[in-house]
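User: Run a structure prediction on this.
Assistant: Running it now.
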Amino acid sequence: MLIKAVTVQGMSYGQVAARYGVSKSLVHKLHQRWLAEGDSAFAPRSRRPRSSPGRTPDDVRVRVLALRDALIAGGHDAGADTIATLLAREHVTISRTTVWRILTAGGRVTPQPQKRPRSSWLRFAADRPNELWQSDFTHVRLADGTDIEVIGWLDDHSRYLLHLSAHPRVTARTVTSTFTQAALEHGHPCATLTDNGMVYTTRLARGGRGRGDGGGNAFETLLADLGITQKNGKPFKPTTQGKIERLWQTLKRHLDARDVTMIDELQAVLDAFRDHYNNVRPHRALGRATPATAYTRIPKASPTGAAGVDTWRVRYDTVDADGKITIRHSGRLLHLGIGRAHARTEIIA
């Protein structure tokens, strides 16, 4: 239209610009383009700049997509934050927004339904390492369908995975032994936070009336002797133990990428996962630091009653055929008579 007004109607550049509300320079540019190119000047043209100095280099784009594919294949977290952090370790600086744009352009992002806004979350976290440990166990299946239970201990402050092991069944003995193993390696916590499973607490046994003898199970007894506070979430509210619950999602995604047939093989996978989770994978809640960094950054807390932690020990035993048990005290073996009526009875000593 602008070109025809100049060529057909014989109007000047200024007259065309005034009539159609455009600049005189635009009319001049379009007319000169038509003179040089003919009718092809009327075809729409791309507005893409001839050069983009700030464009992400192609080799970085390829590396972003390769990291995404490798992380997903390995069952690891493959979000933009993780990829940006891993690239920073390779001395490549790129923002998480740029990573998302590259992933979206490469067809690596699957749209998800609208989630609950983060502003509505009520967060809590311990102020220091070993101030609070969370524990829970979950079920996984081997390749042949065998059900295996995995128990974990997680530091609330740093998300450091203190312990992770597989068992045919998680029992009260499993809880005390794994807790003790983690405590020997990392020190005792001030408090623990678990759900109300019978392996952790008996306070809800018999409809909330407890065991009936006024005592707790082995884990409750052990914590009381060590001066460690025991905390339990509200029934049917797993979000209280949200950190350890979220860990299971990450772990199961990792296990789905592997074909495990034996419990020993599963334990080897869990050990490798724990190392990667603690030392390699950056954590969003920690400012993209690793749990190992956060766990060792400041001094650890310790329980108020930790002075006598070496005095008490919980162990399982079985009354022998003569109705006796054997314990060691002050370097001596003592044989305590329980009674023949209790022969072959399992006890906590």
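Residues 58-110 form one domain.
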